[in-house]
Structure formats: C-alpha cells, structure tokens
Amino acid sequence: MLRVYNTLTRTKEPFEPVRPGKVGIYLCGPTVYKPSHIGHMVGPVIFDAIKRYLVYSGYDVTLVVNITDVDDKLIAESNRCGMPMAQLAAEMTADYMNNLAALGVDVIDHFPRCTETMDEIVRFTQTLIQKGFAYEAQGDVYFEVSKANGYGKLSHRGVEAMQGEGGGMADRKRAGADFALWKAAKPGEPSWPSPWGPGRPGWHIECSAMSRTLLGETFDIHGGGLDLMFPHHENEIAQSECCHGKPMAKYWLHNGLMQASDEVGKLGGRSTRPTEGDLAAQEVAKISKSKGSSPFSELLKQFAGETIRFFVLSTQYRRPIDFSEQRIREVETGMDTFYRFFKRFERVTGESFYAIEVVKTLRDWDFQHEGDPFLLEVTVCSVRFLACMDDDFNTGGGIAALFDLVRTLNKYVDDEKLEELENHTSERLKNLRIGAKRLRELATTLGLFRKPPQEESAGSDELAGKLMKLLIDLRAESRKKKDFATADRIRNGLTEIGVTLEDRPGGTEWTAK
Ligand SMILES: [Zn+2]
C-alpha cells in the first residue's frame, strides 16, 4: 500500500486518488530567464520517477510541468541582454528541454506556457473579482488575502508573513499581504489585453489556471521544491480554493533542495545535513547561491545524464541533496557495479541486458521462486525495493535494494561459474534471466538503465572498442608465444592511461576510468 507524506497534514497518508485508477500531478516548473542549473532539475527527475512508479503500480497518470515565460525576472533579463523577451524565453526553454532529455525525463505529458494560457488566466481572475476575493486598482488586480479562509494552512505561516507583490505601485493595494493577479504594463513592457487594460499575469495565478485546465478543479498531487511552499503554493491554494470552493490538490509533495556541500556523503541517501522540513537551514545552503549554480549543460560535459539522475534519486526526495562533484563521482563508481553485470549477462547469455522485455505494471508480476534459494533472494530484494517506493517514494532505499539485487546476481554467476560454457545448464540460464529481468524492470521504474550508456558518443566509443580489441588480441598472441614481456608491457601501458584489463573465462574485458 502506497503512502505519501502530505505537507498539508504533515503526516504520511495512504494514497487514494480522487478518481479511481487515475492520477493527476502538477509540478511547478522553471521561469525561463537563465540557463537551468542542477537545482532546477531535481524536481523533474523526482516526479518523472514518481510518475513511472505510479504507472508501474497500475495508475493512469498525467504529469504537467508549467513553463513561466513571462515574469518580472524575464523582463529584467531581456532588457539587460537586449534580447526580446519571447526569444530569450524560447532559448532558455530549449536549454531546459535539452537538460530533461539528457536526464531521461520524458514522461511529462504537458508543458503549458504562461503566454499561451492568457485567456484562462483572465477568466480565472474575473471569477475571483466577481466572487469578491480580488479587486482592481488602476489596471492592477490584487487578491485580497484577508478574504481567504484558512490562508497559511500549507506553510503554517500567517498573513503577516506575506509581503505580497506590487504591480506598478504597492500603495494601490488594500493590505500589504495582498498579491498581484494581474499587473498593468509599464511603457515598453510586453503586454496582453485584459478587461483591466494591457498587462501581464502575476506569477501565482498561472499555476491555478493551468492545473484547472489540464487536471481539473481538484487533482491528486501538487509538487514543487520546498522553497515554493510559501508564498507561491499558499497563494495557489488561496486562488483555486476561493474560486472553486473545493480543495485544489489532495496531496502536496515538497522536494528538498539541492545544496552545496564539501562533505563526502554516502551513497544511498544518508545525510548528515538538516533533515526534511528544515526550510531555513536549506535556504541558507541553497544551490543557487553556490558553484552548483553554473549551467547544467556544463555539468553534462563532465558527467553522463544517467549518472546525475542516479545521484538525484539516491536521496529520499524530501531530504536536501548535498551537491559536490566528488559525490557525483562516487555515484559514478557505484554504477559500475551495474554496468559490469550487464556485460557479464551478455557474455553468459549472448543477449543484451537492454533488450530484456519487462512487464508494464506490477499486476503482471508473479512472485514464484519455486523454492530456489537464488530466486528467493531475488524476490526478497525486489520486495524490499517495492516497500521502499511504497513508503513515500523512497528512491534512495530503492536504489540500495537494487545494489543488493545486482550483488545477488553477480554472486550467482560466480558461484555457478556461469562464465564457463560447460556450466550453462538451461535451468541456471533461466534463473539468471529471471533475476536480470527483475533488475531491469525495477531499475526502469526509476528511469534507470533504459539504454546502453555508450549510445551518446557512439563514434569515439566504436573506434576505442576496435583499438582495444587489437591490443587485447596482440597481448593474447604474445602470451601464447610466451612473450610475457610484451604482454606485460601492453597491460602496464594501458593501466598507466587508466584502462584496466580483466581476464575472464570468456575472454578479456576492459574498462576505462
Ligand atoms: Zn506553481
């Protein structure tokens, strides 16, 4: 039974969707005025994995991530760099999309743009005025916070913490806490027509309008970074619930923030940093103020997207993630355990791990292990994975279970000496295939190990592969001729440039650092 931590109630609750079998998720996306940094990619990776797991659990899931392509920050940046706002937004959106693709985030169903949602935003604002929750003031429209019952119920902060946002002039507001739904355009600013004159939306209203359009008045999961809880999410709730008279989202899930760290943490999500919910502490170390705030595309030159994805998912999503290149490198080393097994699997069975077909949902899974100790162990690891994911999407615990599973598989290959052809009984191969299939299936629900990693730079890898084969053959021939000096020279020379040779019954394998 899946349970999720709901920020609204501050408890873990059983997950029961609003409409049986269907799940709607809305995640607040980026304001596209600068290239994304790693902090921007945490939410999409987490919610991509959450969607995959929900689909695997049998739900029909719709995931929406909005793109804020008009905003004060965008206008300021477009003036600074002398580029029209629309062009700047288009370029930064493309950068964001490229980063998502590199991370294997490809299950988002809708990316609504603020500039394409103007009609709905205007209609939403009109309704709030009609219902007495908002007022117009010289071309601006403000939400009157004192009229919203229960304001502050998500963040447990009161009206007094809300500073509000002015459009042109803060003195147009009735109270300091009131925030802008619509801002009158200043000369030269991009604007859209409205009943209150040309202007643009405030930031919060787009999420209320978009989520209603794509997911309905009440949907299942609203997600976002912990830093968005107040005032952004609080204001979304005020707008939507005053407009519709019903709850906006059933479960509010807030992910921890990526923060700078010089500490070397442990793989698997144990952290000595502040625990979840400690917003103040996380804000201090937030990644946007540190060196991790360099463009994400730069980080992708150092690390494969899959490695960064693995790194993000190694922590339970509510915890802060300590960012350091050293930690990502540790993750990279850990992942070799999996890549080495995939090669072994191919050597033993002649089949690619990546070609293993997996079932789409858990319903199709049968837990038969027929009393075989190896299959029993595979089942134990798999059940542990599912238990972690059912416990508020603990991907860090899930990954630890995948490590146990891959160790179990490697041990089976060792114990049964499966690298030697004469030990290939059909029973053993069948068992190995069942175990590998479980690994592939569970990893896929986290969006991991879906494609062979070398596909990204096939050209140079192919050449390296051919050159390595040549060297390995030369070494084998030298050894056959008892010319050990040459054979050793080849091995030692390769070690010096970071290439390790491993002699196995099926041939020599190489790995490069
Ligand atoms: Zn939002």
Question: CATH H level of the largest domain: which superfamily?
Answer: HUPs
Bound chemical compounds: zinc ion
Shape: elongated
CATH C-level class of the largest domain is Alpha Beta
Number of helices: 15
Number of separate domains: 3
Mean pLDDT: 89
H/E series, N to C? EEEHEHHHEEEEHEHEEHHHEHHHHHHEE
- Structural class, please? alpha/beta
Reported for the largest beta sheet, the result is: 4 strands, parallel
- The appropriate CATH architecture of the largest domain is 3-Layer(aba) Sandwich
Question: What topology emerges from the helices and strands here?
Answer:
Blueprint: E1 3-6, E2 11-14, E3 22-27, H1 38-56, E4 60-65, H2 72-81, H3 85-102, H4 118-130, E5 134-137, E6 140-143, E7 179-184, E8 199-201, H5 203-215, E9 219-225, H6 229-244, E10 249-255, E11 258-260, H7 279-285, H8 296-302, H9 305-313, E12 321-323, H10 325-349, H11 373-390, H12 395-415, H13 426-445, H14 458-480, H15 484-496, E13 499-504, E14 507-512
Parallel strand pairs: 3-4, 3-9, 9-10, 11-12
Antiparallel strand pairs: 1-2, 5-6, 6-7, 7-8, 13-14
Helix pairs in contact: 4-5, 5-6, 9-10, 10-12, 11-12, 11-13, 12-13, 14-15
